[in-house]
What does this fold into?
Amino acid sequence: MAGNAVPDWVQSILLLASLGAIAYLMARQASEAARMAEQERVQAFTEIECGDGSRKTREFRSGDFVGGEAADCPGGRVVGIYTVKVEEEKAGRRGLIPVKRKSKS
Amino acid sequence: MASSLPDWISAISQLAFLAIFLLMFLGVNQRLQVYMWRGDIKSKLAFLEWLAANARDRAKEYLAKNKGRRVDEVVERLSDFFLIQPVDIEPVDIIRRLDHLFNVRRLRVRGLLSDAMPEADAVTRSRAEVVLEIASALNFIYKIVRHLLRYGEKTKNWILLMQLQLLMPLIIRQAKTLYSAQEHFAQGLPVGDGAGPLVAYRLAGGSQWRSVEDETVAAEVELEGRRLIVVKAEGPGSSVGRPGAAVEKIVEDLAKSGVKPAMILTVDAALKLEGEDTGSIAEGVGAAIGDPGPEKIRFERVAAKYGIPLRALVIKMSEEEAITGMSKEIYQAVDKAVERVREIVASETQPGDTVIVAGIGNTSGIGQ
It folds into this structure.
């Protein structure tokens, strides 16, 4: 029944579409593995209350704890520590698995 | 008449379709599906292995940095340390038995760390304890997933593999959270679960703290004419203390001097439901404490014994937020919780009353 035969270009398109779908699924699988290793970065801040009642905030330093003394101002005391998520576009997402980059030498 | 290329493609396609159709009756499609599930689980298992190995290395690093001795041996011993749950088909005195087992476990781990880190202070050792616990938890997750995968392969149990594959995203999420938490605990950051102790710290102001129970402290402060006794775990090391035992002791001591507290209020972090806002506050009745039983039951028993209203205030957060560095939303919610405590105390008690407020949670990074 030559009159009902599917044109060649339809078969080619179907073949290409199938290959494209397989490639897309494989790429999606690969990107899922990469996403799995991503970790949100946070930055910690320390809030200090000075002896005169004023407050200041700075980056967290090792040894800071709420209720501890702070040498940043006279009579300074740490009253709070909190974390803030680092914006993705600012710092980029840091993967859990370090990626070795090729040097441009 | 020579066949054209499209005819060949058509013939091969039909043959392939017929073959696939027949193979389906032999379960080949199922095998293919299982093969894909296995591949997915294996790739995630490799990631879990990486997390577990790194967590162990981090723990070794932490111990070595703090002049630890026999670091490898201590980490290996504690990474497989276990606690066997008490018999529960005979529930009589189960809380006492559970409490005893927890105490033995705590003392043994502390003993091991004291021997391994003789020069370290209590705060450093308490952090080492959590760092090691997290390394142990990650190692356990990795081993369980590996066991289920191999067992499923060995017994050709495709339902087990399917369930494991569906659970893997959740397992990976929890493992990643634990891995982040390990770093935050090692740094001495307050975690979301520290919201309760931070509320207690704020309420106490600059009052003098005294030790009441093991790793648990209390302070007295006046609030709108009421005598407020604030209880929290002793910081800034990583500890949850024994708030139930401490409150029980305080109430019994007050009873001896003829004083009955007008209220016991527990403040704790609570897991939010999806859709709820982090830092939202809710109040209710009962003991807001997420321990396995021994501490919570002490609140309930002592409150029931003396007929003291037992009230609860919770700050909501996700599981991830509870064990990683305290987010700004939770930090801001602490001030709102302090205000709510003041409102509850002012509206439900009379001037001159004694009120006990217990800030429940891990006090990492929060001193007194």
Summary: The two ends of chain A are 66 Å apart (CA to CA). Chain A touches chain B at residues 5-6, 8, 11, 33, 36-37, 39-40, 42, 44, 60, 62-68, 80-85, 96-97 (CB under 8 Å). Strands of chain A lie at 38-39, 42-49, 55-59, 77-85, 94-95. Residues 7-38 of chain A form one domain.
